[in-house]
Amino acid sequence: MVNRLARACFLLLLLLLAIAGAGCGPGDTPGRAPVAAPPGPPDSGDWFVLPIDFDPATLNFVSGTDTSQALVARFVADSLVDEGEDLQPVPRLADSWEFSADRKVLTFHLRRGVRWHDGAPFSSRDVLFTYRKILDPASRARAVFLQEIREVTAPDDFTVRVAYREPTVLALDAWKFPIVAEHLLSQGDFMSSPVHLAPVGTGPFRFVSWHRGREIVLEANRDYVLGRPHLDRIVLRVIPSRATQLQSLLTGETDWSSIPPEEWDSLRADAGFRRRFRMFEHPALYLYYIAWNGRTPLFSDVRVRRAMTLSLDREEYLRKVYRGAGVVAATTFHPRQFGYDPSLSPLPFDPDRASALLDEAGWKRDPRDGSRSREGKPFRFEILIFQGNPVQEQIAALLQEGLSRNGVKMEIRVLDFPALLDRLRRHDYEAAFSGWFLTPDPDPAPFFHSDPALGASNYVGYSDPEADRLIAEAHHAFDPGARRSIYKRVQEILHRDQPYTFLFFPMQRVAMDGRFRGARATAAGGPLRTFPGILEWYVPAGERKHGGAR
């Protein structure tokens, strides 16, 4: 699923990610805008066509949370602050910023000369409007980290002042959401505004069209404040099947695809494929997991959750499905994230210990057929998986087999991603197999804090008073040593309670059409940095497939 949707959250576009450790206190020095990219050369052109797994549910950049919507927002809109390729904050709509001496006030200085795609000027009013809409319950937005804010004011058109209740390490992270246009969205009902069908932003690409179930078309913003992109268009094409996505790359219908693990070695050895396509292999800040809904009677028992993890041979699954390309996870903390505790090993594959825990929880085996039941009720549950993802399908089948050996019956329900996400949000499920993109800062609040304002993605209903207290303390721990100690204890608690079975961090293997120049790997730690430096991407005139923008 999504790791932190408010800070960004995608399942589908696993491109060009490399892992780097995160600092513990970003933004200690004022941000300064980089030199704007020069306009594209006169012969700029061609399109980048990439697959998406599903249509967005909405193009409302405030309330929308699915990965397809977030990608459109990435290209069409801008935030005040973004993550640079070195994982440090970089200016976007904010030209610079500074903190007060007590770090309770953050002042943004906005870029001048920024215009919305319809020509209207951008100002601090748009920032205040977006902030208020995020806080409005009717918008159903996820106000992660905005709860730390006491007041936001705009002394003038190009200044935004943010007052915090207490100094927070994550102050800048709260401002990575896309800004929307007050002059277009302040009239009428915000949620039903037709602007959400044809969004207007300030970003490097303008919205052109949305053909439901087929594609979304964007074109270069020739007046973009950081310089016109060299590419004329980006086309997001709906292709639900990952196998079909690869075939579409091979036939030239699209320009990018993830590579199934079983195809990687053969394609890498294929000289013809390597001549046509660039291949990237990187460890990704991404976690596969199984969510155990702690609100259900079955999985409210920590003994049962631990037994589930102990019943699963995650090393075997990694070998069979990913050809060993990845690392089994102990918790959500990735080995390259700040505060990772290397002394904490993943729970081992131990079916005997799993069996003992289930017995202890009252789930006894029937000597006749080996099935488990308690008070006449069989141990049976349904797991949700994402449609069209062969990796998930393979792993789910292995899970089913592994649990059956311990007398547990697991039924697999396949859903499209919007339906699966909806079930998770409503806590209408027993178990679900999905994944998170992790952020440069490993803050666990969105996944595990019991306060809905902080735990926006706490789909399992996890609640532990000590974890809540420590997670909140980490937000205000500017000393790296203190923050590392807090994270160490949080990891121990999560390892003990197993609110999820943390499966593994996979390698990401992708390929893209070789005609694109400037595409590169990045140390950025989130899916919204999927396409680093896309403003500088270009295709030489003699290699173009598509004409200029219409």
Q: How do the helices and strands line up, and which of them pair or pack?
A:
Elements: E1 47-52, H1 67-76, E2 81-83, E3 89-91, E4 94-99, E5 105-110, H2 124-135, E6 149-156, E7 159-164, H3 182-185, E8 205-211, E9 215-220, E10 233-238, H4 242-251, E11 256-258, H5 261-268, H6 271-276, E12 277-283, E13 286-292, H7 302-310, H8 314-322, E14 326-328, H9 351-360, E15 364-365, E16 372-374, E17 377-378, E18 380-386, H10 390-404, E19 409-415, H11 417-425, E20 431-437, H12 445-448, H13 465-474, H14 480-497, E21 500-513
Helix pairs in contact: 7-9, 13-14
Task: Write a structural description.
- There is one protein chain.
- The chain has 14 helices and 21 strands.
- The relative contact order is 0.19.
- It is globular, with a radius of gyration of 24 Å.
- It folds into 2 domains: 54-238, D-Maltodextrin-Binding Protein, domain 2; 286-506, Dipeptide-binding Protein, Domain 3 (Dipeptide-binding Protein, domain 3), CATH 3.10.105.10.
- The longest helix is centred in the C-terminal third of the chain and has 18 residues, at 480-497.
- The chain has 550 residues and is α+β, with helices and mostly antiparallel strands.
- The chain is 24% helix and 22% strand.
- Helix 7 runs antiparallel to helix 9 and helix 13 (465-474) runs antiparallel to helix 14 (480-497).
- It has helices at 67-76, 124-135, 182-185, 242-251, 261-268, 271-276, 302-310, 314-322, 351-360, 390-404, 417-425, 445-448, 465-474, 480-497; strands spanning 47-52, 81-83, 89-91, 94-99, 105-110, 149-156, 159-164, 205-211, 215-220, 233-238, 256-258, 277-283, 286-292, 326-328, 364-365, 372-374, 377-378, 380-386, 409-415, 431-437, 500-513.
- The two termini are 36 Å apart.
